[in-house]
Request: fold
Amino acid sequence: MHTDPLSAQFAALADPTRRAILARLSEGETSVNDLAAPFAMSLPAISRHLKVLENAGLVSRSRTAQWRPARLEPLAMKGVADWIDQYRHYWESSFDRLDAYLKSIQSGSDDGSRH
Reply:
């Protein structure tokens, strides 16, 4: 079954462990052992999480002798950011309308007296 990249990325981002792995990788490439350290799970479990992130294009791995560092692929996040950004106009206009409404309530009920 073929999944579009955005669906694979959102599925990968749905898991808090994978989001934590991405946050750690935003500091620089590292090994599976280092990635596993803060989690109460096995190295194979961390490797499975990395595989999901790799399949979504969010992480890549290379090989240097025995070391297989994982690294964040920040450009892959652009599709996610672009999709979310489509809704920014909606959010901003909703907040602008709410702000205008609250100001109208405040100025309409502000008769100078304090209760």
In short: The mean pLDDT is 87. The beta strands are 59-61, 70-72.
